[in-house]
Amino acid sequence: MPNIKLMESALPVAPLKIAALESCRELGEKVNDYIVRFRQDTLKESLDSPLYYNYQRDNYLIECPCPRFGSGEAKGLLKESIRGTDLFVMVDVCNYSLTYTVNGHLNHMSPDDHFQDLKRIISAANGKPHRLNVIMPFLYESRQHKRTKRESLDSALALQELVEMGVSNIITFDAHDPRVQNSIPLHGFDNFNPPYQFMKALLRAEPDLKVDKDHLMIVSPDEGAMHRAVYFSNVLGVNMGMFYKRRDYSTVVNGKNPIVAHEFLGDRIDGKDVIIVDDMISSGESMLDVAKQIKERGANRVFVCTCFGLFTEGFEKFDDFYNKGYIDRVITTNLTYLPPVTKEKPYFVVADMSKFIALIIDSFNHDITIGQVLDPTKKIHQLLESHKA
């Protein structure tokens, strides 16, 4: 693993503690297990030094519940001292499975509720940690990153609010538009991407996949995902294509101009396997429409790779498209909540990100470069070489 040698020669900034909110508890436990394993295998000869006090532990997680009153109001609690620690707070703002009651009525938690709980835990920390870091895989309000006419700038406001509360670093994944970090130019903002994890999961699910120009192609479902597809195609050494959305700008439906059609720009698809790369699946309609068009153009197999699988309108349409042969695999990460039903889907593949996050946290805690973590090109090339062998 990269950075392990650097960690062995670097001191931790402060004792590590991880506050995984209920929304991110499962992922937090996996991350904790990896960090425990990392630290059991390193620095054996230096652990007697007081500089490594509390370095090797069986658990870095702390309890941080946010109980609610009958009115729906809540408070954040920290069940142990975090004074002088390097605290990492993990939150999944898209976890809709959690509920609470308001005057006897059941409510599902929204991204607004999760963000408020995050601020409660930061408030409970009350300036005591040596350093405060937030890991928010899906960046809160990231799709409202720019202003059109009279609109709010929610993502920028949220980031500014966090740094004003004392957050030193904000860590996120595949931000809808990373330029939102311009709202906090003097504070830490790191945006990681999972192309290596995508390829690892895909090659494991499809061991016969041929990665060359004659058999594989990368497709961007819209102009917004172009940079992801360009990177993928260059690293894999294959061609790419792009769909662009023709919209009806004369009407507005649910706050958006409806898509009239998807037009394709690129090389011939027929006979090739195709990987569609995007940052998220929300309802999935545009992604499925693109997959259908690709299949109708003669593609062999269609693989959908997306960082966040939100599936806001369920899986019925995905099941239908899989049964009709329009999609072969849907690969998404475990960075946001996935309902248990996904384990039953024959086309569904999860790219586990817990080891990656553990490496990020450990690197941050040692204050060492994360350049190799940010750039997965070398790891992808090694993966492809072993796959071909």
Please characterize this protein's 3D structure:
By secondary structure, this protein is α/β, with parallel strands linked by helices. The chain is 30% helix and 21% strand. The protein has eleven helices and 14 strands. It has a seven-stranded mixed β-sheet, with helices on both faces. Strands 1-2-5-6-7 form a five-stranded parallel β-sheet, with helices on both faces. Strand 3 and strand 4 form a beta hairpin. The radius of gyration is 22 Å and the shape is globular. It starts with a helix and ends with a helix. The model has no long low-confidence stretch (mean pLDDT 89).
Helix content: 25-40%
Poorly predicted residue ranges = none
Order of helices and strands: HEHEEEHEHEEHEHEEEHEHEEHHH
Number of domains: 2
Q: Strand order across the biggest sheet?
A: 10-9-8-11-12-13-14
Mean pLDDT: 89
Radius of gyration: 22 Å
Total beta strand runs: 14
So what's the overall shape?
Answer: globular
CATH class type of the largest domain: Alpha Beta
* Class of secondary structure makeup: alpha/beta
Largest sheet: 7 strands, mixed
CATH architecture of the largest domain: 3-Layer(aba) Sandwich
- Distinct helical segment count: 11
Distance between the termini: 21 Å
Here the CATH topology of the largest domain equals Rossmann fold
| Beta-strand percent range | 15-25%
